[in-house]
Design a protein that fits this description.
The two termini are 16 Å apart. Helix 9 links the parallel strand 3 and strand 4. This protein has 14 helices and five strands. It is an alpha/beta fold. It has a five-stranded parallel β-sheet, with helices on both faces.
Length: 320
């Protein structure tokens, strides 16, 4: 039996951008265009949506569009041509370096900075680590790794408690040195491959509470650069529960989260009938398929729920 489950592979992301079965392309284009109007400061955007609502596909489609518009991204020509054929706007961000970061896959790491730098190096963008520019970027990344692993950052993050005056001054200097090393890494990356850096942070709401909190706070402190945009695809309700489980139920998680995001946007709804018909190939020519459409619509299923329900309908239909 055909598997209708949609995995967010690059092939599937591109196919959905080309065929548009959930009628989201206009919103994807508009979101990418919006990023071009956010170039005067460091911005952090929360793309809010329930689990299974297609947030990963959305941000990966935006990333594909930005990569297609960056001649230094290393994207294959045929893929670039297919994507450019879908672009429906003249105002388009150019030369944006993009990084997709699945926070959930890294939440067993000790420090988010290291995994974020690692994900950046592994993210393609035409980065040849054997070239002169690639070696410079790799050396800058190594300097960040050395700074993180070689210093007592736990003391820094706990307010420098218990340190003598001279130790505090030394620790502050080391803290500033780390910021400078990260800035040098960003400088080289942007200088060689674009004019702005966009991080797409996914699945943070699924991470262990201590990692999710550490990630938000470390990013706030060390990646405050006017050439960076962060896009978090996240379920804000779940993230609030994560914050409360870390700081306690009486903690104001809403205000805490608000300080990290300059803009909160709800992911656009999908067209369930189009999704069932064009992606899952379920029409309305039989009673069972008509019921399938109506159930998905009435109960407002997410994309993932619709896929699972459609699979059950297919199984049941083969028994009669």
């Amino acid at each position: 039996m055909k598997n209708y489950s949609l995995k967010p592979t690059e092939e599937n992301v591109l196919e959905l951008l080309r065929t548009n079965p959930i009628q989201r392309n206009p919103y994807v284009f508009r979101f990418a265009e919006m990023l071009s109007h956010m170039e005067d400061d460091c911005y952090s955007i929360a793309l809010n949506g329930d689990w299974g609502s297609g947030k990963t596909f959305f941000v990966k489609q935006v990333k594909l569009l930005l990569d297609a518009a960056n001649p230094q991204s290393g994207m294959p020509k045929e893929t670039r041509r297919l994507i450019e054929a879908q672009i429906q706007t003249a105002a388009w961000p150019e030369s944006y370096v993009t990084v997709y970061y699945d926070a959930w896959s890294y939440d067993n790491h000790d420090d988010p900075i290291l995994s974020l730098i690692y994900a950046t190096l592994q993210n393609g963008q035409g980065l040849d680590l054997s070239s002169n520019s690639g070696i410079r970027i790799l050396n800058a990344a190594t300097a960040v790794f050395d700074a993180v692993t070689g210093e007592n950052l736990t003391a820094l993050m706990n307010g420098l408690k218990g340190l003598r005056s001279e130790d505090k001054l030394s620790a502050i200097k080391k803290n500033e040195d780390l910021k400078e090393k990260i800035r040098e890494f960003i400088n080289l990356l942007i200088e060689e491959h674009g004019n702005r850096l966009v991080f797409f942070i996914d699945e943070l709401d699924r991470c262990k509470p201590d990692y999710a909190i550490r990630f938000l706070e470390r990013i706030k402190h060390y990646f405050d650069d006017e050439r960076i945009t962060f896009v978090f695809s996240v379920n804000l309700t779940q993230l609030q529960w994560t914050v409360r489980s870390y700081y306690g139920n009486g903690f104001d998680a809403t205000k805490y989260i608000d300080k990290f995001f300059d803009l909160q946007i709800s992911i656009p709804r999908t067209n369930s009938d189009s999704f069932l018909r064009d992606r899952l190939h379920i029409g309305t020519d039989t009673v069972s398929t008509m019921v399938c459409h109506e159930v998905v619509r009435q109960f407002d299923f997410s994309l993932r729920q619709a896929e699972r329900y459609a699979r059950l309908i297919k199984i049941v239909a083969t028994q009669f």
